[in-house]
Specification:
The complex is a heterodimer of chains A (339) and B (266). With 339 residues, chain A is of the alpha/beta class. Chain A is built from 8 helices and 18 strands. In chain A, helix 3 crosses helix 4 and helix 5 runs parallel beside helix 8. In chain B, helix 3 packs across helix 4. In chain B, the strands form 3 sheets. In chain B, strands 11-10-9-12-8-1-6-7-13 form a 9-stranded mixed β-sheet, with helices on both faces. Classes of the chains: A alpha/beta (339), B alpha/beta (266). Chains A and B meet through helix 3, helix 4, strand 7, strand 9 and strand 10 of A and helix 3, helix 4, strand 9, strand 10 and strand 11 of B. Strand 10 of chain A pairs antiparallel with strand 14 of chain B.
């Protein structure tokens, strides 16, 4: 790559707590910056968040551009977008990576539009590769149906921007001896940043039920669960395995799971030790949500279903027969969890 | 008086038929011929919110869509639900855009349409699901925007309090009109078109504009205006074992569980 700009990761903190995805971006960012031979830096906005800036250093950021102001305590869309675009224009990084969190998904396109540059959405991998004999950063993005991915490039505009879903990359390793520079940038916060729009309250709740992101086993049902009239058997199986229940988009549309438990491109990404897929054919939009799982078990009645290409262990059969049988067999290995 | 409201809608393949969509790997293009289409599900929530605003404050609702005019399912449904008029943007120059080029196309059309008090979008589409066009369009129009909107309350006719979702929790935002809101399914339950609504579709205004009509510079729309593009399409190598269990149902299940144990998964 001819570009000399740094690789940037946008650190996201809420109420003084760093979002995990920032650490995931730092691990990918480290690999990318070493490959290209440029510095890896992070940017952080907030109020009294120097401790978090140090966390970013411990996880691989060589520099942290720190923008602190009392009025930046909460995410404020106009102030954050304007300040971020400003610091990017000043330092001209070649790549800017942002976590596709609820806030990142809103902030990243605002910044990209201000900079008139391209923004790749929810990539599952990124690396330096060749396209037409020229080196490019290749952003791997899930494609339509089947097991296809698209290789997205941003040949001309800089910076290249991309969002990455939480849970896709592994977290950077923490090393408290790592040294980095914290560069304080005095943010030019203006009254008019809050004149048209202002965040007045931020409420973070603890998730209900077993957390999907932290579960070591995820049992996910699809449209095929219709044959069993819903999700009660899925819950039973999840209880035996000590796992969390999730669903595909059609399962959510049926009302069997809440949106917060939908697996896939526009839902959650999970990487548990065991992912069990029941009655889902395996469209790419769904399978990208569990690609990082250690072991995948799939049950579906259609032997041609793409889900079996994405599974370690496949059982072809009628869910009405297979699922009760699977529950009985697993009971022999595991006693139900007491809550 | 009343509110001038714009609702951005997209016609998308029906999610039940996603697995039938083929990709031309050589060209990196999607082949979706013959797949049933619908109005993007969240866009119906966007339109419903606009209809409720109009019922309360009076005004006019315009829906806008970019795409081929051949099948007009989304526009017809929007008009049948109660939108007053529709704008269709179609030109080969608009084809194969990234999200910023899409936002620019809508931006130029809005320049010609005039001022809006409120613009609603579905938070994301079921096909590409980037959730980017709404925030980008608002940025180009220089108006405030909120994504993942779950609840809208009018403080007065010119200011709103909006609740937007976080992963676990929410944010409350106050904003002044004009503004753009990208809505989630929590915001309302969309109405179904009435028979009368369906009958009125044919009488409603449908504007079709090309690049020239909206004075869109070719270098900012479509593939030409895109910063990013798909260089190629590949099979995703999963590295999975892909073992299919054989035998009777009981045998398959027993073998599967035994393999899970060998792999250390249970």
């Amino acid at each position: 790559m001819s570009d000399s700009g740094e690789i940037w990761v946008i650190g996201e903190q809420r109420l003084g707590r760093l979002e995990e995805v920032s650490l995931e971006l730092l691990s990918k960012g480290t690999a990318l910056s070493q490959r290209i031979g440029v510095a890896l830096s992070a940017v952080l906005l907030g109020d009294e968040v120097e401790k978090i800036a140090r966390e970013l250093v411990f996880h691989g950021a060589e520099k942290v551009y720190l923008l602190e102001d009392a009025r930046l305590r909460y995410y404020q869309s106009e102030a954050y977008a304007r300040l971020l675009a400003g610091v990017i224009e000043e330092h001209e990084p070649q790549v800017v990576l942002i976590g596709a969190t609820e806030i990142g998904k809103e902030l990243a396109p605002k910044v990209a539009a201000k900079l008139k540059t391209g923004l790749t959405a929810h990539c599952i991998d990124l690396y330096v590769g060749e396209v037409d004999d020229a080196p490019h950063i290749i952003y791997v993005v899930p494609g339509w149906g089947g097991n296809l991915v698209m290789h997205i490039i941003c040949p001309q505009k800089r910076p290249q921007m991309a969002t990455v879903k939480p849970g896709v990359f592994s977290k950077a390793v923490k090393d408290e001896n790592r040294k980095g520079k914290i560069i304080r940038v005095k943010p030019d916060v203006r009254d008019e940043d809050f004149r048209r729009i202002e965040t007045v309250e931020v409420v973070e709740e603890s998730p209900k039920g077993k957390s999907l992101e932290l579960a070591d086993v995820v049992v996910c049902g699809g449209w095929g669960m219709n044959a069993l009239g819903g999700f009660s058997k899925i819950q039973e199986l999840a209880d035996i395995l000590g796992g969390a229940v999730a669903g595909t988009r059609p399962a959510m549309d049926k009302g069997w799971v809440k949106e917060a438990r939908m697996i896939g491109q526009s839902g959650k990404t999970v990487s548990p030790g065991l992912f069990v897929s029941l009655g889902a054919s395996g469209a790419m939009h769904y399978t990208t949500g569990f690609m990082g799982s250690k072991v995948v078990l799939a049950v579906d009645q259609n032997p041609q279903a793409p889900i079996f290409q994405m599974a370690d262990i496949g059982v072809v059969g009628d869910l009405c027969e297979v699922l009760p049988c699977l529950i009985e067999e697993l009971k022999k290995y595991r006693m139900p969890r007491k809550s | 008086m009343g509110l001038e409201i714009l609702v951005c809608i997209k016609q998308v393949p029906h999610p039940d038929h996603f697995s039938e969509i083929q990709v031309d790997a050589g060209k990196g293009r999607v082949i979706g011929e013959g797949i049933p289409v619908i109005m993007n599900p969240l866009d119906r929530h966007a339109l419903e919110e606009a209809l409720r605003n109009k019922e309360r404050f009076s005004g006019r609702i315009t829906v806008i869509r970019m795409g081929r005019p051949r099948v007009q399912k989304a526009v017809e449904e929007a008009l049948a639900m109660g939108a007053d008029r529709a704008v269709l943007l179609y030109d080969t120059a608009f084809a194969r855009p990234d999200t910023l080029a899409t936002a620019f196309t809508l931006f130029y059309a809005i320049q010609r349409l005039g001022k809006f008090d409120l613009i609603y979008c579905g938070n994301e589409t079921v096909d590409s699901g980037t959730a980017q066009v709404g925030p980008m369009l608002a940025e180009l129009l220089d108006i405030p925007q909120v994504s993942s909107v779950q609840e809208v309350s009018f403080i007065d006719e010119k200011s709103l309090e909006v609740r937007r979702a976080l992963e676990h929790g929410y944010i409350k935002v106050r904003l002044k009109l004009p503004a753009l809101l990208s809505v989630t399914r929590d915001i309302n339950t969309p109405r179904l078109p009435t028979v009368q609504g369906i009958m009125e579709v044919a009488q409603k205004e449908l504007i079709i504009w090309n690049a020239k009509d909206i004075q869109a510079p070719p270098e900012s729309v479509g593939l030409k205006g895109s910063s990013i593009y798909a260089a190629s399409v590949h099979e995703y190598k999963t590295g999975r074992c892909r073992e299919i269990m054989q035998g009777s149902t009981e045998e398959k299940v027993r073998r599967a569980v035994a393999r899970l144990k060998e792999l250390g998964a249970i």
